[in-house]
Amino acid sequence: MVREPVQRLAYAVIVAAGSGRRCPGSQTKQFLDLCGQPLYLWSVQTFQQCPEIAGIVIVGPKHNYQALLEMQQETAIFDKVMKVVAGGESRTESVSNGVSALAAADNDIHKSDPILIHDGVRPLVTTELIINVAKQVGPKQVAIPTTTPTATVKKIVGNTITETIAREQLGLAQTPQGVPYELLCEALKHWRQNPATPITDEGALIENLPPNKRAEVTILNVPGEPYNLKITFPEDLRQAEAILLRETNNAIAFKPRQATGFGYDVHAFAASRKLILGGIEISGHPGLAGHSDADVLIHALVDALLGAVGAGDIGQHFPDHDPAFKNRSSLYFLERALTIVKKRGFKLEAADITIVAEQPKLAPHIPAMLTMLKKTIASPCQLNIKATTSEGLGFTGRREGIAAYAVATVIAD
Ligand code: MG
Fold it and tell me: What's the pTM?
């Protein structure tokens, strides 16, 4: 029996390495909030959902370890994301870093597998376009989506219009642009011999091949999508937001004006550790076991904050296997959670925390905890901490550990 050849899947390299110099007020536009999540995450999500995609590499900014770490955390829930790597000085160098990381992460990659390079600042790409581009890529065929300019296009020399250009022959290039793996490697290798050559997309990268190689390759035009905007200016972001809210009928993109999150955490007692609760040390009592300082109260509050802005949970952002967080003060997690809240366009309005412990007596320590937390939060909000016992029942009643519950309400900033 002759089997149908199995259709190879495509890989995506999402480039979110830019410095966003044209979008005032932010150094890195790919991280601007769009309907409750960072801009670049929208396209990561779409590639993740696309059945034709086997794996994704994300290229983040160069010289920005913190941003890369955050991107890693934000994309940890997507199983197709193979790697988050730092970009380079130019777009092409960033693409090159992404392709190298892809090859290193997947040794099953085949020379004709489509590699789709996508701009992280095109959040409205659809799975239909991704599939259309991927299926047009062949061993010697590249696929580039374009749209036809809707306005009449003029040629301008100095301050004079010299010519009206037939727009039927023009195309505005979009991404994703699909190139077979081997050809992409070859084109990147050729570009590296003269990296000063200005290359703005993969189409231009292929055009830059030596003439004999270029002649072997067809660059196929694929119909692009009018909504596949490239976010360059602040107005673009507002337009993308309007499209998302309208097109998805608020089912996917919804940004509440106010939201409440809930958090719960438990830590067992550990005789050898200091007891840290609400950011303060309570002496004369065994502490709690944990990777960080095990401040169960702050952990519950952090989960409530992350929950309120739809940003997952504490384990996702601060994994307990990460040596960076070993014995770390949980006030650091609180600061980071508040930064996430702010980035998503919200501020903490009120939080209420209940701590359940049979011992020690916590009421006398609550004022100091409130002071410490308010100092960390550093913006006006209502904060309340309550301490209770569980009347001798359950694990807290048996004095095995401490539990904490928190709710946090955030409002649009
Ligand atoms: Mg915890």
Answer: 0.69
